[in-house]
Amino acid sequence: MDLRALISLVAAALACLAVAACGGDEDAGESADPGIPGGADPEAARVIDDWATALRDGDVEAAAGYFEIPSVAQNGTPRLKLDSREAVLAFNEALPCGAELIRAEEHAGYTLATFELTERPGEGTCGDGVGNEASTAFLIENGKIVEWIRAAGDAAPEESVEGPVI
Fold first, then answer.
1. Is the domain of 66 the same as that of 77?
2. What's the maximum distance between 2 C-alpha atoms anywhere in the chain?
3. Closest to 100 (Cα-Cα) out of 70, 166, 56
4. pLDDT of 4 higher than 60
5. How much is the pLDDT for 42?
């Protein structure tokens, strides 16, 4: 076998291994983690899960890194424009609970994430919230959180002129 044929054979074998390792198209329509049901876009689910994990671990700096600047947040309050790193840090620090992502689904252009609330290191306590579920509508663009909108109860966001109504 000449050198060119050997290189071609090795390249073909590596390509087959890469496709097999990625799972081909078998995972299409599933969240990034097969343990997270709901069928959300895998990239959006990964960003949300990574953000929640960082916050749950008390790493507010890392959690803030998942937000685009500027971004928008609404947690039962008027919409906040987070137009600086300091504003994003303050928003994340103010969240008293940690959260574990348990479901992520697409709804009206948003990823609706359902979390089980936990305690987390840092200021504030989750208290009676621990173990309860909470839902948040996320708009993820280019791997960053652009909108973080708390959904009232477990209701999905509905479109309005200004964005989701929750």
1. yes
2. 71
3. 56
4. no
5. 93
Q: Within the chain, where are the H helices?
A: 3-22, 42-56, 60-64, 85-94
Name every residue whose Cβ is closer than 8 Å to that of residue 109 and which is 6 or more positions away in sequence: 139, 159
Beta bridge partners of 98: 118
Place of tokens 């996320």: 138
Let me know whether 136 and 99 are in one domain: yes
Q: Using CB atoms within 10 Å of the CB of residue 13, give its burial: 0 to 12 exposed, 13 to 18 middle, 19+ buried.
A: exposed
Whichever domain contains 52, its CATH number is: 3.10.450.50
Residues 158, 83: contact at Cβ < 8 Å?
no
Considering its fold, how many domains does the chain have in total?
2
| pTM for the whole structure | 0.73
Token pair for 152: 């009232």
Its domain, for residue 9, covers 1-28
